[in-house]
Amino acid sequence: MSRLQVVSGKGGTGKTTVAAALALALATEGKRTLLVEVEGRQGIAQLFETEALPYEERKIAVAPGGGEVYALAIDPELALLDYLQMFYKLGSAGRALKKLGAIDFATTIAPGLRDVLLTGKACEAVRRKDRGGRFVYDYVVMDAPPTGRVTRFLNVNDEVAGLAKIGPIHNQAQAVMRVLKSSETAVHLVTLLEEMPVQETADGIAELRAAKLPVGRVIVNMVRPQVLDAEELELARTVPRSSVARSLSAAGLGGARRGGHAERLVDPLLGQAEEYAERYTLEQEQRSVLADLGLPSHELPLLAEGMDLAGLYELATDLRKQGMS
In the predicted model, is pLDDT for residue 304 greater than 60? Predict the structure, then answer.
């Protein structure tokens, strides 16, 4: 597994949930994972049922086997202060700029600068080592922007390196791109078995490949359980209505003593089977589209009880069983 795991996906596919579950899955056997949020939505705090994350790395969960999950919500303004201190030693002058509103102005007027700071902070966590020369984090998982923006978000440092030919900005941008375009990074895309998310996933993969960014895996989220297989669905389409009514009566559902109500149950029952068959066919078509992308894929179930902390650990277990750890 690459040390930087970037998770993206169309809005509504549950990419933040998958990123959190992946961080838990990777934090096995004593490993340490950093889960990074870059969009300022505090989605990670909600999933782990904790207070809003500050701009600092904070332990939020313990994984089975004693591993630890830390989380960081990156604040672009504070990240810019770190950047100015790191490269220009501004210190109190940088804090004065913040008070004057210059930091907020800079990160608002130049959206590309925000992305530089966000990706740079994540890559710094990937490269960071302790005094003994060991990596502080075994893995860094980034909850990245949606599929439509993720390629430009990750590739912004390439543009910066081209604009700033020399100096610390150029060197920093190159260092970030060395991480993002190497085997240290994998960009995973989350989708649903629906036409629009699958098409956006295919388009996103094409954009990532064109930018020479390392595409990882496709994770299909919220997969409904399979109730009937193809053979059973064909039987449901062709079975005579009278046969279904007799079977219902024999099972005591609307028998003769109740005035033959079994007949009234046939149409709703077969209607449900028809709806399921249509959805099954559409989902199989989308699975075929995803298979043609030539990437490893994983499926996560739609949780019957909804998403809570227990469900998050359940999804992490599913990912581990499917080899994502």
Answer: yes
pLDDT per position as a tens digit, 120-131: 889 999 999 999
- What is the C-alpha to C-alpha distance for residues 187 and 269, in angstroms, rounded to an integer? 43
| 10 contacts 191 by C-beta, under 8 angstroms | yes
pLDDT in tens, 267-292: 777 667 777 777 888 999 999 999 99
Residue with the two structure tokens 């504070």 = 78
| DSSP bridge partners of 72 | 36
Q: Are 42 and 149 in contact (CB under 8 A)?
A: no
Which tokens hold the place of 158?
A: 């390439």
CB-based burial, 106-123: b 16+ in 10 Å, e otherwise: bbeeeeebbbbbbbbbbb
